[in-house]
Structure formats: structure tokens, C-alpha cells
């Protein structure tokens, strides 16, 4: 489904004299809380998977053990993508790189949505701690993907056509410039 509105990047918004909400958010205390939450979840997952999770996995029947292995790998991958994105954004916030540098192919973190891989009834057989970590990580990943899309919307696809709203706004500006001339 085509999106009717793509939020402007910070550079585009600044050129128009507006301030991007998402840019303000990613440089605020809200980002610091998101960063702390994300890194805390990485630590929590690592601690669980290396300790209690390992012992719990040994007690699972074969199909559930295979699902455990799959979901734990997906959890780790998901959290590493999120942590990489958070660290990159922190580098931008601390002035170690610009947003434009972060958007380059060399630095860009490619986030891909990863839902639960196994069947719902098999997921319910997994240890509660793994299920909780998986669901928390999916919610966090969804938030980070949304922020990433808002930050890099026009930079990720420079060939995208302008949205209908952008076209109408441009027409209005042109009409008012003619009227004010």
C-alpha cells in the first residue's frame, strides 16, 4: 500500500523553516530512555540465554527445543540490529558523525522486521522468559524501525515521487508567491 505522506527529513524540514519532530525526539531525553531500554534488553537477553535459558532449553521436547533455538537466534539478531541502530544514532547525537553520514550505505543499519518464526501453539511451549524477551524485542524493534523510517524517509529512496500532499503544498506556495509579487 502506498503511503500518502512521508515525513520530511531534518535537512528538508530545516530548508523549509520547520523543525522535524522525529529529529527533536532522537536528540531528546526520550531517545536516552529508548537507548537505555534497548541496551538493557540486550543485556537481559544475553544474561538469560547464557544462564537460565540454556538450562530451560535442555528440558524441552525436541520440537520445542528446535523452536527455542530458532527464536533465540532471531531474538539475538533482532536485538543486535536495534543496538547497532541505537549506537549509530547516539554517535549522530554526540556529534561524532552527521545524520547524512549515518544515512550512507557504509554506515546505515538495515533494519528488517522479524516476527515470531514458529507456530503460535509451539511458541506457547517455550519458556516464559524467552517469550517475554521475544515480545519485548519485537515491540522495541517496531519503534526503532518507525523512527528510522521517519529520519531517513527521503534519503533511503531519493527517486520516490513527491506525495500528493507535497504536490498540493508546492502549488499553494507557488500561488501565494505569484499573488504576493
Tell me the number of strands: 0
Low-confidence stretches: 1-10
Indicate the CATH class. Mainly Alpha
Task: Look at the structure and name the CATH superfamily.
Answer: Protein of unknown function DUF1465
Query: Overall pLDDT, averaged?
Result: 82
Taking the sheet with the most strands, its summary is: none
Fold and architecture overview:
The longest helix has 32 residues, at 62-93. It is elongated, with a radius of gyration of 21 Å. Helix 3 runs antiparallel to helix 5 (62-93), helix 3 (29-50) packs across helix 8 (128-156) and helix 5 crosses helix 8 (128-156). It contains nine helices and no strands. The protein starts with 9 loop residues before the first helix and ends with a helix. It has 181 residues and is mostly helical. It has helices at residues 10-15, 21-26, 29-50, 52-58, 62-93, 99-102, 120-123, 128-156, 164-180. The model is unreliable at 1-10 (pLDDT under 50). The chain has a single domain (10-180), classed as Helicase, Ruva Protein, domain 3 (Orthogonal Bundle), CATH 1.10.8.
Amino acid at each position: 500500500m502506498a503511503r500518502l505522506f512521508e515525513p520530511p527529513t531534518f535537512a528538508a524540514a530545516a530548508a523549509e523553516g520547520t523543525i522535524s519532530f522525529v529529529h527533536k525526539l532522537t536528540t531528546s531525553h526520550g531517545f536516552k530512555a529508548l537507548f537505555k531500554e534497548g541496551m538493557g534488553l540486550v543485556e537481559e537477553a544475553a544474561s538469560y540465554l547464557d544462564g537460565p535459558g540454556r538450562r530451560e532449553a535442555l528440558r524441552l521436547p525436541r520440537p520445542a527445543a528446535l523452536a527455542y533455538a530458532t527464536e533465540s537466534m532471531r531474538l539475538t539478531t533482532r536485538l543486535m540490529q536495534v543496538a547497532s541502530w541505537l549506537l549509530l544514532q547516539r554517535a549522530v547525537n554526540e556529534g561524532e558523525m552527521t545524520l547524512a553520514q549515518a544515512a550512507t550505505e557504509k554506515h546505515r543499519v538495515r533494519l528488517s522486521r522479524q516476527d515470531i518464526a514458529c507456530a503460535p501453539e509451539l511458541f506457547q511451549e517455550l519458556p516464559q522468559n524467552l517469550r517475554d524477551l521475544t515480545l519485548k524485542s519485537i515491540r522495541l524493534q517496531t519503534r526503532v524501525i518507525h523512527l528510522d523510517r521517519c529520519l531517513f524517509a527521503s534519503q533511503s529512496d531519493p527517486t520516490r515521487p513527491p506525495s500528493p500532499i507535497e504536490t498540493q503544498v508546492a502549488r499553494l506556495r507557488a500561488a501565494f508567491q505569484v499573488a504576493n509579487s
